[in-house]
Amino acid sequence: MLAILGASGHGKVLADIAELTGWSSIEFFDDAWPDNQYNGAWQIVGNTQDLLNNLASYKGVIVAIGNNKIRQQKLLQLQSAQANIVSLVHPSAIISKYTKIGLGSVVVAGAVVNPDCTIGIGAIINTCSSVGHDCTLGDAVHICPGARIAGGAYIGNRAWIGVGSSVRQLTTIGSDAIVGAGAAVVQDVLPNVTVVGVPARPKP
To answer: Which of 3, 77, 84, 90 lies 20 to 30 Å from 18 when distance is taken between CA atoms?
Structure first.
């Protein structure tokens, strides 16, 4: 049985991937329980503490929270409790056998990850995005749908790469930076900075 922490739209995507990859039984946990009882087709059975109290009942656990910082915090909490954290990869995703993907990460439909990449813990490689060769993605990074990361780029912990954006080869995106939707990053982005536009510039 798979436990998913975070009854969100992203959680529905993870549950769908889980079913496609052979998980026959899936239960959600969310801190809005018991007010919320279902996430689409799947039942919510408890909150974070309930999951921590019942880890032995689950063969795998994954966090489905879009907020990078909260997702990382929940993963660290589960790691400390020795949860069996798993990753999920959609059957249509293409991942080089020479790439390493950290625990708790998810690769969504149509995504491509090329050779010699290192993906951290709890990353999201979202729908139809691509990560070029020799890239390094830190923990709890989110590569949004349709984003393109060229070869040799470095993406720091918890960075957010927006929908349809692009990052030039050998570029560094600092931790907690945000790249706006459709932006074209052609130079390094400092930590905690939001950039937007073509070419991408710091947001005023």
So the answer is: 77
At 42, phi and psi to the nearest 5? -115, 145
* Whole-prediction pTM: 0.95
Which residues touch 146 (CB under 8 Å, ≥6 apart)? 127, 128, 129, 163, 164
Separation in Å, CA 177 to CA 61, 109, 144, 189? 28, 25, 14, 7
pLDDT in tens, 1-15: 999 999 999 999 999
Pairing of strands 136-137, 118-119: parallel
The single residue listed with the structure tokens 């070419």 is 199
State yes or no: cis peptide before 34, omega within 30 of 0. Answer: yes
Tokens for 146, please give them: 């349709």
User: Which burial class, exposed, middle or buried, applies to 97 when counting CB atoms under 10 A from its CB (0-12, 13-18, 19+)?
Assistant: exposed
- Give the integer Cα–Cα distance in Å for 8 and 1: 19
Q: Is residue 160 within 8 Å of residue 181, measured between CB atoms?
A: no
Dihedral over Cα of 138, 142, 146, 147: its sign: negative
Please enumerate in sequence order all residues whose Cβ is within 8 A of that of 90, keeping only pairs 6 or more positions apart, or say none.
17, 20, 21, 107, 108, 109, 110, 111
- E strand or H helix at 73, and its extent? helix 68-80
pLDDT single digits (tens) 72-109: 999 999 999 999 999 999 999 999 999 999 999 999 99
